[in-house]
């Protein structure tokens, strides 16, 4: 078959970084798109459900890059309208003569179709040639048993998964061998009964070396033409990777909840203090500006591979609200320093507050001479960070008559939140502000 559009499976060619280059008609239809151009250049994971996106990036894509292939991975496609389709993914990396990956080839098979094929398979006789060939070549562990659950067939995948040669287990009750005698007929609370005595369940199976293997098994009866039972066939799949992915998803969800709670607490503090120190007329603008400063911090953290954030990127982001002319009057200089998420959040808010104060009253305001400006610099000495905000060229500098939320944000709140130290000196030419903190492992 030379025309990929005639293949009843989703075929996708991707670039080495897993961006879509070509799809066949079946994949286009499953993805819920009208034209190939809608998919070209998009990352393949964008076609998957939220859980599938995480699993693709954390497991499937690294396996393709390192091992060069993946096989029989259960995922869900999700259309723009929210409809989902269960698929099984196979993938192969194409490499050049030097071993570099030049393309990724993905094949998606309908989960519904596969389940119907499996049911058809289970209705076939054990001794049918097609069935025997399929069992031998299957990537899943397949166990054939008689009516008393004694093993009469055991494929290579079962030997690889459990470590027992077929000769060692032949004639033994498969439940005694793998499930420590547990009844595999649906008594487990996780078991799901289907037609007749067919059972689907998850369990902790025993390997020949004594270790435990998390598996999902499907047991179905083999019937002859007259309806008499000839035995059972059990398909067993290793779900250790799926369990690990589920744990990763749970951990990520917990982290999202934790971060959200922290952000809500910060936003609530900003709202209360802004309301306390500003008029109702000014509240919306001041609160919105501070909220935008917080959002810039979170956007930077989201783009990082880890929860650490570069101090230079933080400073540039919090000065981005200045127009081009004013930004030219601010210099930023210092070595590479990585901040933890908590420190970056509060220090970013402080830098934004300093810049708005400079814009209203300091070196970037109308009170400053044309030569006025701001120098933001920092040093690292023995693990001690020292960051300076130095304003020059300001006329009539004086300390504020009252300590508003801005003063607390750049002072006591920053100190308490990060275990740092702050000093502020209102010199004749402008504010000189310093923040110092022992970095405790950050670089």
Short description:
The chain contains 14 helices and 18 strands. With 443 residues, it is α+β, with helices and mostly antiparallel strands. The chain has three domains: 4-110, 2-Layer Sandwich (Beta-Lactamase); 123-238, Beta-Lactamase (2-Layer Sandwich); 243-438, Histidine kinase-like ATPase, C-terminal domain (Heat Shock Protein 90, 2-Layer Sandwich).
Description:
By secondary structure, this protein is α+β, with helices and mostly antiparallel strands. It folds into 3 domains: 4-110, PAS domain (Beta-Lactamase); 123-238, Beta-Lactamase (2-Layer Sandwich), CATH 3.30.450; 243-438, Heat Shock Protein 90 (2-Layer Sandwich). It is built from 14 helices and 18 strands. Helix 2 packs across helix 8 (240-276). The chain is elongated and about 100 Å long. The two termini are 57 Å apart. Residues 185-195 have low confidence and may be disordered.
């Amino acid at each position: 078959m030379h025309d990929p559009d005639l293949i009843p499976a989703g075929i996708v060619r991707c670039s080495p970084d897993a961006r879509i280059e070509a799809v066949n008609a079946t994949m286009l239809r499953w993805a819920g798109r009208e034209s190939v151009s809608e998919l070209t250049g998009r990352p393949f994971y964008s076609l998957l459900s939220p859980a599938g996106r995480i699993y693709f990036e954390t497991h499937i894509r690294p396996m393709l890059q390192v091992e060069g292939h993946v096989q029989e991975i259960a995922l869900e496609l999700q259309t723009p309208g929210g409809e989902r389709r269960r698929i099984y993914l196979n993938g192969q990396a194409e490499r050049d003569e030097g071993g570099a990956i030049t393309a990724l080839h993905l094949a998606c098979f309908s989960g519904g179709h596969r389940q119907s094929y499996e049911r058809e398979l289970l209705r076939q006789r054990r001794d049918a040639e097609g069935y025997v060939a399929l069992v031998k070549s299957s990537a899943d562990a397949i166990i054939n048993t008689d009516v008393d659950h004694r093993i009469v067939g055991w494929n290579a995948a079962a030997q690889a998964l459990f470590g027992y040669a077929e000769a060692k287990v032949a004639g033994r009750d498969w439940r005694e061998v793998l499930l420590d005698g547990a009844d595999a007929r649906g008594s487990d609370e996780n078991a799901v009964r289907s037609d007749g005595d067919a059972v689907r369940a998850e369990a902790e199976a025993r390997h020949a070396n004594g270790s435990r293997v998390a598996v999902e098994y499907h047991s179905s009866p083999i019937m002859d033409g007259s309806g008499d039972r000839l035995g059972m066939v059990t398909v067993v799949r290793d779900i250790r990777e799926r369990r690990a992915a589920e744990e990763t998803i749970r951990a990520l969800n917990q982290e999202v909840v934790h971060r959200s709670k922290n952000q809500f607490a910060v936003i609530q503090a900003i709202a209360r203090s802004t309301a306390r120190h500003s008029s109702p007329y000014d509240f919306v603008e001041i609160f919105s500006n501070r909220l935008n400063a917080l959002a810039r911090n979170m956007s930077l953290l989201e783009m990082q591979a880890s929860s650490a954030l570069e101090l230079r990127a933080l400073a540039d982001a919090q000065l981005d609200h200045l127009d081009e002319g004013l930004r030219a009057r601010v210099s930023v200089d210092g070595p590479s320093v990585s901040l933890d998420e908590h420190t970056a959040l509060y220090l970013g808010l402080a830098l934004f507050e300093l810049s708005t104060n400079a814009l209203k009253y300091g070196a970037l305001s109308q009170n400053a001479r044309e030569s006025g400006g701001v120098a933001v610099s920092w040093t690292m000495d023995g693990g001690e960070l020292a960051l300076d905000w130095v304003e020059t060229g300001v006329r009539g500098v004086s300390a504020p008559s009252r300590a508003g939320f801005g003063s607390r944000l750049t002072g006591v709140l920053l100190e308490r939140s990060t275990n740092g130290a702050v000093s502020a000196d209102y010199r004749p030419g402008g504010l000189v502000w310093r923040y110092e903190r022992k970095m405790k492992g950050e670089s």
